[in-house]
Write a structure and sequence with these properties.
Blueprint: H1 5-19, E1 23-31, E2 34-41, E3 44-51, E4 58-61, H2 74-83, E5 87-93, E6 99-107, E7 113-121, E8 128-133, E9 140-146, H3 179-188, H4 195-202, H5 208-217, H6 229-244, E10 250-255, E11 258-263, E12 274-279, H7 282-302, H8 304-330, H9 334-346, E13 357-361, E14 370-374, H10 381-424, H11 429-441, H12 449-457, E15 463-466, E16 472-475, H13 479-489, E17 495-499, E18 507-509, H14 519-531, E19 541-547, E20 551-552, E21 563-564, E22 568-572, E23 579-580
Antiparallel strand pairs: 1-2, 2-3, 3-4, 5-6, 6-7, 7-8, 8-9, 10-11, 10-12, 13-14, 15-16, 15-23, 16-18, 17-18, 17-19, 19-22, 20-21
Helix pairs in contact: 3-6, 4-5, 5-6, 8-10, 9-10, 11-12
Length: about 575
């Protein structure tokens, strides 16, 4: 969900409650599009984050720790000059728009009281932050952190110019809308368009997510023509009353454990696929949402080199395999060459002189038909037979070697798929380090000093869960951990689970020899194995399970590779509903 005007209004209320009257102690700019004001009020610290990053633009209280660059950017130095030591007098939105203004009580160069303003325009790719001085309509631009266009339509944005608000959109203010006005607007809107489009096109400051939720709560009609106006108004007025009456809820929508949306009321349109988490404040909700996203992006960046190694190796094998298989298909002619050599040898007494072909009887056939065999006219019949025997032996040897190479290439490709699946499960830099070590030991990257250092830092801590029946589950997050949980941690009486026909984690359910877990425990373990696999997004995923005593690791095999017998197969929906166990291995 975008940081819309409704959410901005609620965040402003939260900021006023905690930061109005606070003194600005420090200002720093951790990135090119983020400003942090570190303030103090009644002995307690509070941080205001101003972000104009197009992907995470917002103004709110924040508890996130961000690095303070050693050399502050120019705009940060300007803010320090004008705002350090000032007091936050008020925080407000300029109308029902995504323009948040922080008003400061300050002093000018001569020591006279004055007012300064930090104005944030949250407009996606055209977001801006301005430092303003003056009063009322005569505020002048002292400096700016400019992300969008310098022209901004009719506005001319330069230091020293009078500040103008962004051009107002020709839309209605939803906070003062009445029922009759809503029905009137709905009647004049194009009948074939969707209810969510009507709300976004007609009213200020409402995000597409909130509009879709209104349409969903009003019955999910595909168009204005098919909707119930009364139900749409009821959903719309309930949403706006949450803002007007200050009874909103800070919510984050999660799918597969990953935050995908944030809102000021519970989002139901995703159905059972989503989990809605509520937070005590919008500051906490936004910190969680963007913190998790930044962590995921950081993990992607740190794993980039490993992904490139895996991707490059995969491409080579995917290109090599068809070529090997084509060569192998050519080896099917080996028996034909042997037959020709035998037929020539058996008919040597009949063949005289040199010719380009010979017609000989096929003594290996019941019908004894004639076979025309091509000959090299430069060679004798005996030499032609020797030539065909040589071709036969060559292709026979090639077939054995090619079959072996294809088997190894397929096994190597399966291994790389398992590494790729493990990369998607990484949750920390340590997890990535383990995969780096694994690839180095497998010969995909050099065993450098950095790899040795990574080995020293790696803790090899698999995921640890507990089922409803109280049985412990250990889940390997990569092939090294898979080997660890299967060959070292598990006992012969424990149960072993792995997705069928795909790459994934080894899951071990600890079970005493004289106990038999309930069907529910087996289901939860199988669901966990399906969830931590390359088939996570599938339905009715097959999971093989057996006792550990039936699982063997062949000598010299790559990390994570095992063979097993006497297994059962369960078909489950991939999910991880078991409780995480905090005790370390």
């Amino acid at each position: 969900m975008a940081y819309d005007a409704a959410l901005a209004t609620l965040c402003v209320d939260e900021m006023n409650e905690r930061a109005r009257g606070a003194k600005v102690e420090k200002i720093y700019q951790p990135s090119k599009d983020e400003i942090i004001l570190q303030c103090r009020k009644s002995g307690q610290g509070v941080k205001i984050l101003v972000s104009v990053n197009p992907a995470s633009a917002r103004v709110c209280i924040s508890g996130m720790d961000k690095d303070n660059p050693k050399t502050p950017p120019m705009f940060c130095m300007l803010l320090r000059k004008h705002l350090t030591g000032t007091v936050i007098q008020d925080i407000y939105t300029c109308g029902f728009e995504r323009v948040v203004e922080i008003k400061f009580s300050a002093f000018d160069e001569l020591g006279f009281p004055c007012e300064k303003y930090l104005t944030s325009e949250i407009m996606g790719k055209s977001s801006n932050v301005f430092l303003l001085g003056g009063e009322g309509e005569k505020k002048r631009i002292l400096g700016m952190l400019h992300i969008g266009d310098f022209t901004m339509g009719a506005r001319h944005i330069v230091a020293g110019a009078l500040y103008e608000l962004p051009p107002r959109q020709d839309k209605k203010d939803p906070t003062v809308e009445c029922e009759e006005g809503f029905y009137s607007s709905l009647r004049t809107y194009p009948r074939e368009r969707g209810v969510d489009k009507f709300i976004v096109d007609t009213y200020l400051g409402i995000s597409p997510l909130a509009a879709r939720e209104c349409a969903f709560l009003s019955g999910g009609a595909e168009s204005v023509e098919k909707c119930s106006p009364r139900m749409v108004w009821r959903a719309f007025s309930d949403m706006m009353s949450r803002v007007n009456e200050k009874r909103a809820e800070a919510c984050v929508v999660e799918i597969d454990g990953r935050p995908v949306e944030y809102s000021y009321f519970p989002i139901r349109q995703y159905g059972e696929a989503a989990n809605v988490r509520t937070f005590e404040s919008f500051a906490a909700a936004l910190d969680y949402f963007f913190g998790e996203r930044e962590r995921a992006e950081s993990m992607q960046a740190k794993a980039h080199d490993v992904k490139m190694i895996v991707s490059s190796a995969k491409k080579k094998l995917e290109k090599k395999l068809p070529a090997l298989e084509e060569e192998l298909s050519e080896c099917d002619e080996a028996e034909k060459f042997k037959l020709w050599g035998d037929l020539i040898t058996s008919s040597l007494y009949m063949l005289h002189g040199k010719s380009e072909f010979c017609d000989v009887t096929n003594y290996y056939s019941e019908t004894l038909e004639k076979v025309r065999v091509p000959l090299d006219s430069k060679l004798s019949a005996g030499q032609n037979a020797a030539k065909y025997y040589k071709k036969y032996n060559k292709l026979k040897t090639a077939k054995q070697m090619l079959s072996s190479q294809i088997t190894k290439a397929r096994a190597e490709l399966d291994y790389l798929y398992s590494v790729e699946a493990a990369l998607s499960l990484c949750e920390s830099e340590g997890d990535i380090s383990e995969i780096r070590i694994e690839l180095a030991e497998a010969g995909y990257s050099p065993k450098t000093v950095m790899i040795n250092r990574a080995r020293a830092k790696a803790k090899f801590e698999p995921k640890h869960y507990i089922t409803s029946g109280g049985y412990e589950l250990y889940v390997g997050k990569n092939n090294i951990q898979n080997d660890y949980v299967t060959t070292r941690l598990a006992k012969k009486s424990d149960w072993w689970f792995h997705v069928k026909g795909g790459a994934g984690s080894h899951v071990v359910m600890v079970c005493p020899p004289d106990e038999e877990p309930d069907a529910r425990d087996f289901t939860e373990a199988a669901q966990t194995a399906a969830y931590f696999s390359s088939l996570r997004d599938g339905e009715n995923v097959a999971v093989d399970y057996t006792r550990i005593r039936n699982v063997k690791k062949p000598s010299g095999s790559v990390a994570g590779y095992v063979i097993y017998t006497s297994n059962y197969t369960a078909y489950v929906e991939p999910k991880c509903d078991v409780e995480e166990y905090n005790t370390k291995v």
